[in-house]
Amino acid sequence: MKGLLQREVADHAGIDRSTYIKYESKSHGLYDFDVLAKIAGLLGVSLNNLLDEYNRFVFAQGENLKRLRKRHGLTQARLAEMMRVNVATVKKWERGQVRMTKKMWERVQSIKNSDSA
Prior knowledge:
By secondary structure, this protein is mostly helical. It has helices at 6-13, 17-25, 33-43, 47-50, 53-59, 61-71, 76-83, 87-95, 102-112.
């Protein structure tokens, strides 16, 4: 994009080159948003452009989860039941205290894509 070497981008972001390679291949899973913000700044692109769908969701996880619950008319207790977790976990997700795993996000996607709640 800007003719930078992987080592240069990794150094700028404060990570190892091997970690940066995982970021490029999207095999990393959950990305560190501070690192991605540094990379986005260096490349002159929006942070959102660097995120896959899962990471976009967890970037604003609390708001996204609350919006989904309200759209489907779900209480935290009902969402917890559907997600097969306890209510305390849903509350932590909504407060942004704990990031949702990709497996849990996939369950959210099935709820999001369902016609009935």
